[in-house]
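Can't attach files on this board, so I'm pasting raw text. These are the components:
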Amino acid sequence: MRILITGGAGCLGSNLIEYWLPRGHEILAIDNFVTGKREVVPTVDGLQVCEGTIEDESFVEACFSTFKPEVVIHAAASYKDPNDWKTDAAVNVVGSGVIVRASERHQVKRLINFQTALCYGRPSKLPIPINHPVAPFTSYGISKTAGEQYVLLADVPVVSLRLANITGPRLAIGPIPTFYKRLKAGQGCFCSDSQRDFLDMQDFLEFMDLVIVDGAPTGIFNVSTGESNSIKEIFDLVAKHHGIPAPEVPIVPVGDDDVPAVVLDSSHTEAVFGWKPKHGFESIITRQLRWYDEYGVNDVYSHLKPAAE
Ligand SMILES: NC(=O)c1ccc[n+]([C@@H]2O[C@H](COP(=O)([O-])OP(=O)(O)OC[C@H]3O[C@@H](n4cnc5c(N)ncnc54)[C@H](O)[C@@H]3O)[C@@H](O)[C@H]2O)c1
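---
Top answer:
Structure tokens for the assembled complex are below.
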């Protein structure tokens, strides 16, 4: 299958490339390397890399017309600076629209979008059902939600996956790399008083095999284990991993731009796709920490405003 991946040098994009190339798929990755790293999309048979921005219609058109993708995975997103709403809107809204129009012109068989659970805002029900209203309130959430709306209008088969926090190679956002890096360096940490859900990369990749199949279900889907765990539970596992016995850590209320609990209900997805994640919370965190032991943690990004020191 010919698969075009926007944001191919990012965490999810690069893991999909590593997973799909050996399975015989041809891939074209589009990336402007704002958060993704060049070295994770090496020159290898079956992989083409096009450097540029998804906001640029003629660049995107050239990529589509030379590669002729059958499937488009839309993973490029802006979130690096929570105050930079212009870039978030340009990439997540306008860029998504450009990808939608190109997918329509080239009549791709499937357009698959990745969405943040922040589209639900502060949910009124947990775990969050797929029919829960969207009510984003951060630049990242608002722009990704507007982008998703354009994707859902596309005149090709569309899937939008509202994802839990996916852990795996090169994860560079959120509490796991932050705690790993800071505790290893002997630095202090704090835990926000919040609950999150996670999904292991292997479970995500196996799910993606089902999603790209021609004629597979379309629509919006939550993708998660549905398990709810506190940030403090992550902190404790990271401390244990580093051999630090039961350290004290302040628990702080969530910031104005954060949500106390985000846990997605994937029961509809499991029923429709006949899929179930294999890894639970402890296995997910432990596998991530072992990966950092082997490869380290580089820059850590956040879509949240930095907490006051
Ligand atoms: N990783 C997760 O757990 C998770 C959870 C929920 C939703 N998502 C969504 O999945 C997608 C991928 O997430 P990720 O974790 O891989 O993020 P990432 O930052 O690692 O990857 C995004 C990639 O997009 C590229 N990019 C940014 N702006 C671009 C532009 N204008 N043109 C071309 N490329 C551009 C970046 O350089 C980066 O390589 C995002 O849309 C994100 O909202 C991810």
